[in-house]
Amino acid sequence: MQNAIINITNLRLRTFIGFNPDEREKKQDVVLNIEIHYPADTECINHDEVDHALNYKTVTKAVIKLVEDGHFLLLEKLVADVLSECHRHHSVTYAKVKVDKPHALRFADSVSLTLDWHK
């Protein structure tokens, strides 16, 4: 069996992130990079069977809703919640989520946090 790897690159969203008063009142940009592994069985690869593949559009829509509707004090909580959404599907064997918070520090392009999970 082959290992399929889905990468969702630079998903740009807006959410409430941070604990300072101004961060609690207006949404900020975040950039998500997601990697999801699952076994690509022969039905997927040889027979082009959609039902045997992980639907990355469904995963992405759930992540978008979670992030855009959420209020997070910590980057760690945001990343952990997105990671949980990514490995919700029973066939996922590994997932990694990196979230960047652009302009979080004055002299840096961004601050990011990465978490991963494996079955």
UniProtKB/TrEMBL annotation:
One of its GO terms (molecular function) is dihydroneopterin triphosphate 2'-epimerase activity. The keyword Thylakoid does not apply. It catalyses: 7,8-dihydroneopterin 3'-triphosphate = 7,8-dihydromonapterin 3'-triphosphate. Its EC number is 5.1.99.7. Residues 6-117 form the Dihydroneopterin aldolase/epimerase domain. It is an enzyme of class 5 (isomerase). Keywords: Isomerase. One of its GO terms (cellular component) is cytosol. The keyword Calcium does not apply. Pfam families: FolB. GO terms for biological process: folic acid-containing compound metabolic process. Belongs to the DHNA family. NCBIfam families: folB_dom, PRK11245.1. This is Dihydroneopterin triphosphate 2'-epimerase. The lineage of its organism: Bacteria, Pseudomonadati, Pseudomonadota, Gammaproteobacteria, Alteromonadales.
